[in-house]
Amino acid sequence: MKWIKKLFCGNTEATPSNIEAHKDEIKVPVSFLSAQNIVYAGEEVGLSRLAFKAKQLGNKYVTIDRNIYYQALNNIAKGRRLDYSIQRSAKLNLLGIRYEKEGNIEDAVKVYEENIAMRSNGRHAYDRLKIIYRRQKDRENEIRVLRVAIGVFGEDSEYNERLLKLLSKTKEPF
Q1: How far apart are alpha carbons 93 and 90 in whole angstroms?
Q2: Which of 20, 41, 86, 88 is deepest in the core (most CB within 10 A)?
Q3: Electron transport: is it a keyword of this entry (predicted)?
Q4: pTM score
Q5: Which CATH architecture fits 85-169?
């Protein structure tokens, strides 16, 4: 955490002109230290203390160890992808629910299928497809959905029990 020491030790009147980045550091705008980026980066990266001090001093730029910066960027990208995935999954589930309430099962299946194609870690789409395909007596698709769910949630999930039960009634191999 030498980059924190650089900011907190020595010259507490640091300004953009007297904080120069060395070869193992990178100079970034303080705006990079937004609350959302700090949350995504994770506490182990330690950006929150740096952001607080830099904003307190009125700095427009901060220097950060390159490894810490790239770790933060990687964590931020992962966090944003996860947020997008969760939001997309929720929207698709709500749309599927609406279609089901309207009696439009065909469109509900389409949006639930889109949801499981993303390998969403929410159970709603898998559960609804499993039920819809069971009601339609479409074992092939029910088995496919169960296999995808097991891939997402693991073999210890209730999906494995249902799959074993279905496969024991058919001659299809595991």
Answers
A1: 5
A2: 41
A3: no
A4: 0.68
A5: Alpha Horseshoe (1.25)
